[in-house]
Design a protein that fits this description.
Number of helices: 3
Strand order of the largest sheet: 3-2-1-4
Strand content: 35-45%
Shape: rod-shaped
Distance between the termini: 34 Å
Low-confidence stretches: 12-19, 116-124
Number of domains: 2
Number of strands: 4
Structural class: alpha+beta
Largest sheet: 4 strands, antiparallel
Radius of gyration: 53 Å
Length: about 190
């Protein structure tokens, strides 16, 4: 008897659970409209411009130039003549040799220092003018373009004389599958 009571209670409980679940099925609803929904977004992009600018050329001093001896020769001659004018006897010979040596050194120094064309911090060319070189300079900045993109569709549809609307990712077309759920009303 106890077993029969337990079986009866279990079957009543299973029947109640089955009755509490709603029956559902799918059907088609007629779509009245599907309006795209837009969102504005900022899209960054680089906008670059190029400019040509002139700037002075830095020329390195010429080191491959052949040695110049003209200044040393002229300086030596001038120093020898001046040294020969100084002193008497043996002192005259020493003064002449010393004048030649000092004059050659001074003449060489003067020629190497002042004998070239103007040169100012490497910006003068060999013709005495500033040389200019063109260089391309590129400047970039970030610009934001506003673009609209579709985020979804606001769909209005009819099902059995009732009007509904929902937001969907895609356009459903002319009909929309809907899930219909039937559930008894408990008094």
């Amino acid at each position: 008897m106890k077993r029969l009571t337990q079986l009866t209670i279990a079957s009543l409980f299973a029947t109640a659970l089955a009755g509490a679940q709603a029956a559902s099925f799918t059907d088609n609803a007629r779509v009245r409209s599907a309006e795209p929904q837009y969102e504005n977004i900022n899209v960054p992009r680089n906008e670059c411009t190029s400019q040509w600018i002139n700037e002075p050329v830095s020329a390195a001093p010429q080191t491959t130039q052949a040695p110049q001896y003209g200044g040393a020769v002229l300086g030596g001659l001038a120093g020898g003549v001046l040294g020969h004018q100084v002193g008497n006897g043996r002192g005259k010979d020493v003064a002449t040799v010393l004048g030649v040596v000092l004059g050659a050194v001074a003449g060489n120094q003067i020629q190497n220092q002042y004998g070239q064309l103007p040169y100012d911090n490497g910006q003068y060319a060999s013709n005495g003018r500033y040389e200019q070189a063109q260089r391309e300079v590129q400047r970039c900045r970030t610009v934001y373009d506003i673009q609209s993109r579709i985020t979804g569709y606001l769909v209005s549809y009819d099902y059995r004389g009732q009007q509904y609307s929902t937001l969907m990712r895609n356009n459903p077309g002319n009909s929309l599958p809907v899930r219909v759920s039937v559930e008894p009303i408990q008094p």
